[in-house]
Specification:
By secondary structure, this protein is α+β, with helices and mostly antiparallel strands. It has 4 domains: 2-137, 2-Layer Sandwich (Beta Polymerase, domain 2), CATH 3.30.460.10; 146-231, Hydrophobic Seed Protein (Orthogonal Bundle), CATH 1.10.110.30; 252-360; 364-419. The protein contains 24 helices and 11 strands. It has a 7-stranded mixed β-sheet with strand order 3-4-5-2-1-8-9.
């Protein structure tokens, strides 16, 4: 595993920052997730540097430095056009709100800095110049054993920051690791702290978990530890078999957040509740709206005997742009819930795609008559009758798209108008 570190591809600007701080007599290491990933032969997304140098000493060592979080000891060095985050070794005071330490103290010792971190696999430091790995809590061994374990007391770590239990489960899902028994046992005992966490932070972790290749197992862990009941009781309290199928459908759906959330909820809640859940978890409105739309229409297997007009109405409700998303959720569900119906679902999908390819008129702007044309034909001004007429014409062309010509629609419009009861 050390060979993986020594052979890792570390960007030149990062190495230059480390070398410069070393020249000035400071201890300096790569820390956290980047070390974990390099040990695993995964290229890190970010390279975080930790140093014994105080923030002002880091600022003095480089030409361009941005004081991004200087009160917590973090600055960003701009080196060769690359932004390198550099943080002074630090220890932390008590956590009073289940989220942030009440104070931060700068340290000269890398082990003190590592001891405040969440999990052993994130509590390693590596100096690429000396090829020195600092691993005081057995992170390398836990990586080899595929174990998520807290640094020190799990109860203490989880009581400090309420999001850490969720992160533990997310790491287990994303990496395919197990939870250390003491770490797992500490989660139910600290749910009170987890409840204080802002739902935006929960949503970020949930999104990473749901998009992982092991989303199903992650959802099981969330349920078994009590975390899921705090922010998604609709799933946590569902009938066990219904919840199992929903988790399996989530895993079967493509790794897009709207599709996986829709697959999870489709057979557990209705459209309104699905949208409420999306908004409660602080997803953007457009995500919540799409999830609700997909949940409402996900049971495509119930539509296999529908007529073409009925399917065109479905396309009008869903929109052509969202048809691939709806099909993906329906396939994931049927694959899990009724695999014997996959063939007939595919026949329906073929019909839907053929109807969509014909580009039928599905919304009012597709009509061969504009609102102005309708008013001119009926000899009326702006009034509710224009909306009624538009809806009548839409129903006509959904039944028979070939009617969508100006002449045919005018004739139907006049017939409809003359047949209306006068008031």
């Amino acid at each position: 595993m050390l060979a993986n570190l020594h052979n890792a591809d570390i960007p030149r600007p990062v190495l230059d920052v480390i070398a410069r701080l070393r020249e000035q007599g400071h201890a300096v290491y790569l820390v956290g997730g980047c070390v974990r990933d390099m040990v695993r032969k995964v290229h890190p997304k970010d390279f975080d540097v930790a140093t014994s140098a105080l923030p002002e000493e880091v600022q003095g060592a480089f030409r361009k430095v941005i004081p991004t979080g200087i009160q917590h000891g973090t600055v960003t060095v701009v080196q060769g056009g690359t932004h390198v985050e550099v943080t002074t070794f630090r220890s932390e005071g008590d956590y009073l709100d289940g989220r942030r330490p009440s104070s931060v103290a700068f340290e000269r010792d890398i082990v003190k800095d590592l001891s405040r971190r969440d999990f052993t696999i994130n509590a390693m430091a590596y100096n690429p110049l000396d090829r020195e790995l600092v691993d005081p809590f057995g992170g390398q061994a836990d990586l080899q054993s595929q174990l998520i374990r807290c640094v020190g007391s799990a109860l203490e770590r989880f009581s400090e920051d309420g999001l850490r239990p969720m992160r533990a489960v997310r790491f287990a899902a994303v990496l395919g690791f197990s939870l250390d028994p003491a770490t797992r046992d500490a989660i139910p005992a600290t749910l009170g702290v987890f409840r204080k966490v802002a739902l935006e932070r929960v949503r970020e972790e949930l999104t990473k978990l749901l998009l992982s290749p092991r989303a199903e197992g992650g959802l099981v862990l969330l349920s078994e530890t009590g975390l899921l009941d705090v922010f998604l009781p609709e799933v946590a309290r569902a009938d066990p078999e219904a919840a199992r199928l929903a988790r399996a459908a989530t895993q079967a759906a493509p790794a897009e957040i709207e599709l996986r959330v829709a697959a999870l909820l489709a057979d557990l809640v209705d459209r309104t509740r699905a949208r409420d859940i999306g908004l409660r978890l602080k997803f953007p409105n457009k995500v919540a709206d799409l999830v609700a739309l997909l949940v409402e229409n996900a049971r495509l297997e119930d539509r296999v005997a529908d007529s073409d007009p009925a399917l065109r109405r479905l396309l009008a409700r869903v929109g052509l742009a969202q048809l691939p998303h709806l099909v993906a959720v329906a396939r994931a569900r049927v694959q899990v819930r009724a695999p014997e119906r996959c063939a007939e679902l595919e026949q329906l999908v073929t019909r839907l795609e053929a109807l969509a390819a014909a580009r039928p008129p599905l919304v009012a702007k597709d009509l061969a008559l504009t609102g102005g044309d309708i008013m001119a034909t009926l000899g009326v001004g702006p009034s509710p009758i224009v909306g009624e007429a538009t809806r009548f014409l839409m129903e006509s062309v959904l039944d028979e798209p070939s009617l969508n010509t100006a002449e045919a629609l005018k004739q139907r419009l006049l017939s409809w108008h003359s047949a209306r009861p006068t008031t």
